[in-house]
Amino acid sequence: MQTVTSPHSGQRKTPRPRADALRNRERIVTAAREMFNEFGPDVPLDEIARRACVGNATVYRNFPDRDALVREVVCSVIDRTSEAAEQALAETGDTFEALERFVHTSADERIHALCPMVQSTFDKHHPDLAAARERFERLVDQLIDRAKAAGQLRADVGVGDLMTAVVQLSRPPAGTGCHTLDRFVHRTLQLFLDGLRAPARSALPGRAVTMEDLRQS
């Protein structure tokens, strides 16, 4: 008697991660994001495990080395900031208000903390990072283009100009605690945003800065 073989026999489905495993991974990434912001990307992994309330083995099971964890945190911050841009585009009819909401949310997500992290040795061209960066830049381009088309944003501003200012204005000065000046950040950012409104009161030196300019600097 001939055995009928299913076309799918012998193929094993990749098991889905258990819910508790996904929660542990999210706790690790959240704890790492907080501690990298507070202490820099060289914070001991066992300290991250302690804050995440997981064992060291759980950290290494999810992230085989520090570079893998740093890359995941960078992607997480970029993704969360991209979601803020998507929400601003979808929910706000006023184009400049959408841009303002994105800038303030970017500061709340502490996007400035990416700067020391990207100096790490992890692969800057990793597919996950490239996809997150491409999505982010596309969305911020849309915010800027829409505000320019509406005549609300000065025409000589680029994505690089915007993100440089957000990072610089939301980063604590050297020698101060990370959170001591948080209450002033949004006030300072709003002063900057008011300077972006059209019509421009002065001509900017040079040309609009792109994200590619920042990567090459």
Automatic annotation (TrEMBL):
- Domain (HTH tetR-type) ranges: 22-81
Keywords, ordered alphabetically: DNA-binding, Transcription, Transcription regulation
Mind telling me which Pfam families this protein's record contains?
A: TetR_C_43 (PF21597), TetR_N (PF00440)
Is the keyword Cell inner membrane assigned to this protein? no
Coiled coil regions in record? none
- Signal peptide as annotated in the record: none
DNA-binding region listed in the record: 44-63
Report what the protein is called: TetR family transcriptional regulator
Q: Which organism is it from?
A: Streptomyces dysideae
